[in-house]
Design a protein that fits this description.
Radius of gyration: 19 Å
Structural class: mainly alpha
Helix content: over 70%
Distance between the termini: 47 Å
Order of helices and strands: HHHH
Largest sheet: none
Mean pLDDT: 83
Number of domains: 2
Oligomer: single chain
Shape: extended
Length: 102
């Protein structure tokens, strides 16, 4: 990328950042929808708890990252995040559909 014109790289990064923001926004909306579909009775409690967790994550994230890098290199963080994503994917696949949908 160092050989590419910096003006073109800036445009590429701006588009990539826009796509990243759209993906994060869709995830933040979709988890609430899935909560209402799968856990209708407990939806309010789950969503409130979820927002508390999302709001508090910036505080322990550097601490967790520091602990991980004390045992591994910086690549260990990416290995940890990959394993976490795989676990979340498997849990999502195993989630059963409700008997009736919206």
């Amino acid at each position: 990328m160092a050989y590419i014109n910096p003006k073109k790289i800036l445009g590429f990064f701006m588009i990539a950042r826009l796509l990243q923001g759209l993906n994060v926004a869709s995830v933040l909306s979709l988890w609430q929808l899935f909560t209402f579909i799968y856990f209708e009775q407990k939806a309010k409690h789950i969503i409130n708890s979820g927002f508390m967790i999302i709001g508090s994550m910036p505080a322990p994230a550097p601490l967790i990252g520091g602990i991980l890098t004390s045992y591994t290199s910086w690549r260990g963080i990416f290995v940890f995040l990959t394993m976490l994503a795989i676990v979340m994917f498997v849990l999502t696949i195993r989630l059963e559909l409700p008997s009736e949908t919206l």
